[in-house]
Automatic annotation (TrEMBL):
The basal body constitutes a major portion of the flagellar organelle and consists of four rings (L,P,S, and M) mounted on a central rod. The rod consists of about 26 subunits of FlgG in the distal portion, and FlgB, FlgC and FlgF are thought to build up the proximal portion of the rod with about 6 subunits each. SUPFAM superfamilies: Flagellar hook protein flgE (SSF117143). It is found in: Bacterial flagellum basal body. Keywords: Bacterial flagellum, Cell projection, Cilium, Flagellum. Residues 96-159 form the Flagellar hook protein FlgE/F/G-like D1 domain. This is Flagellar basal-body rod protein FlgG. Residues 4-34 form the Flagellar basal body rod protein N-terminal domain. Residues 215-260 form the Flagellar basal-body/hook protein C-terminal domain. GO terms for cellular component: bacterial-type flagellum basal body, distal rod. Pfam families: Flg_bb_rod (PF00460), Flg_bbr_C (PF06429), LlgE_F_G_D1 (PF22692). It comes from Salinarimonas ramus. Belongs to the flagella basal body rod proteins family. GO terms for biological process: bacterial-type flagellum-dependent swarming motility.
Length: 263
């Protein structure tokens, strides 16, 4: 009976949906996290009678078809790349992006990753790095004898040395954009990788056309809404239950047919 297989695909689809929702909820406090949403498509159909088929010698035609579907499949877990709320941290090297863009991060294997997580620190050499120690491109080093660090909305990093009257610029942060941000590959550790679907990264400077501005002393929260996720979780749970009831109903129908043969 086709209903058994169709309902089984529905249960598997809702199981994946719950996994996506649970990951969103788990990352509600993850800096720069972008929520995912599962998308589905119906599977192939068996056509019992085509629409427009001739039904008489007078060339009358059927206005609609008889098609039996075979269930559902998952096609993507796309991310919503909308802006998250900015939270003050009062840390000099916490930098939030207000608007479009990603920070570039140099990985140890030579690859370049991209992130919205601006929770940076300094390593033993004074270089600006991520929480995992990956260097933030294009490479900015803060001298040892500084009293204060200022990062402007346009990405200018200025330091005030001990005894100096004027601040000194030691570098400027850059941002990158993608034609299709949804096509980025999730690498974990708040990092993304470029793919053929995302397109090549386009470099630019903060506060320029098409790029967002920077906010020192702030971090971008995850764009996860607790109410939305709980509502989606309840809907997924009910859909799972309904598919399980279809399986039970199909099983009872098969059992009734089997008893008729026995009788």
């Amino acid at each position: 009976m086709r209903a058994l297989y169709s309902a089984a695909t529905g249960m598997m689809a809702q199981e994946l949906n719950v996994q996506v929702i649970s990951n969103n909820i788990a990352n509600m406090r993850t800096t720069g996290y972008k929520r995912q949403q599962a998308h589905f498509q119906d599977l192939l159909y068996q056509t019992m009678r085509r629409a427009g088929a001739t039904t008489s010698a007078q060339d009358t035609q059927t206005p609609s078809a008889v098609e039996i579907g075979s269930g559902v499949k998952a096609v993507s877990t796309a991310r919503a790349m909308s802006q998250g709320n900015l939270t003050p941290t009062e840390r000099d090297f916490d930098i939030a992006i207000r608007g479009e863009g990603f920070f570039q991060v140099n990985l140890p294997d030579g690859r370049i990753a991209y992130t919205r997580d601006g929770g940076f620190d300094l390593d033993g050499q004074g270089r600006l790095v991520t929480k995992d120690g990956y260097e933030v491109a294009p490479g900015i080093t803060i001298p040892e004898d500084v009293q204060s660090v200022s990062i402007s909305a346009a990405g200018h990093v200025e330091v005030t040395r001990a005894g100096a009257a004027e601040p000194e610029e030691v570098g400027r942060l850059q941002l990158v954009r993608f034609v299709n941000e949804v096509g980025l590959e999730s690498l974990g550790d708040n990092l993304f990788g470029a793919t053929a679907a995302s397109g090549a990264p386009a470099e630019g400077l903060p506060n320029e056309e098409g790029f967002g501005s920077l906010q020192q002393g702030y971090l971008e929260e995850a764009n996860v809404n607790a109410v939305t996720e709980i509502s989606a979780l309840i809907s997924a749970q009910r859909a799972y239950e309904m598919n399980s009831r279809v399986i039970s109903a199909a099983d009872q129908m098969l059992q009734a047919a089997s008893q008729m043969f026995r009788g």
